[in-house]
Amino acid sequence: MSTEAVERRLYNALWWAKVQSAGPLEVDPETPAVAGLTRAASPDGSTVWLVPTLPSGAGHSVLEELGAPPVAVEQPNETARLLAICVTCCWTDRSAPAWPGVTGTLAQIRSVYAGMRGRAEQSSDLTLIIGSLRRLHATHWIRWDEKTAEVRLGPRVVTWTATDLSTLRDLCRHLPEPPPAELSTRPEPVERQEVLDD
After folding, report:
1. From the CB of residue 35, how many other CB atoms can be counted at a distance below 10 Å?
2. End-to-end CA distance of the chain
3. Which one of 22, 62, 133, 189 is least enclosed by Cβ atoms within 10 Å?
4. Basic and acidic residues composition bias: which ranges (predicted)?
5. What would the pLDDT profile of 147-160 be if each residue is shown by its tens digit?
């Protein structure tokens, strides 16, 4: 085996070890491709996520062997409901890929959640919603910004197959329609101008 081939295998193994220990990684767009990892450009293009590309239909033993077992979360049913709601709020053009989607809001999520439950919001609902959003953020299914109360789909959604997306489209049709998003206004960055002496 050539030195170049050995170096390439070591490079790939290093990145796989990083992803196995930390989950999807956000890296510089100039980072070379890694075998078996899908590249998902962030919405603004400033970074790229490296996400494991797992074999279609991989069972639990295969996922364990690859160091990517299914993510276990507390309250899996509630967390799955919230992921479906986030998909409904953030994947508005369902003829386009799910990644990167659009920004959704906590107000939208609360509205869809109440509509899905078929009752007015209760005081405990917000605690359940926030807990699920935090779990989904920690596992990279969504990107949750608590300060602005805004959410985007996370880099792991790039691993969804055409069959997954078809199922999700059908699910979204059965969930209540979210109200329009009212996004936080972020101040535009001030460009520094240099003053030149004449």
Report:
1. 12
2. 63
3. 189
4. 188-198
5. 999 999 999 899 88
Provide the pLDDT for residue 56.
63
Q: Which of 107, 41, 116, 40 is nearest to 84 (CA)?
A: 116
Predicted local distance difference test score (pLDDT) of residue 78: 84
Closest CA to 152 of 96, 104, 107, 184: 104
What's the distance, CA 111 to chain centroid? Answer: 21
Q: Where are the alpha helices (DSSP H) in 104-197?
A: 106-117, 123-138, 162-174
Domains of the chain (ranges plus CATH)? Answer: 3-65 (no CATH), 76-174 (1.10.10.10)
Q: What is the pLDDT of residue 187?
A: 44
Q: Which has the closest alpha carbon to 36: 5, 74, 70, 67?
A: 67
Helix axes 76-90, 106-117, angle to 10 degrees: 120
Question: What is the pLDDT at residue 131?
Answer: 92
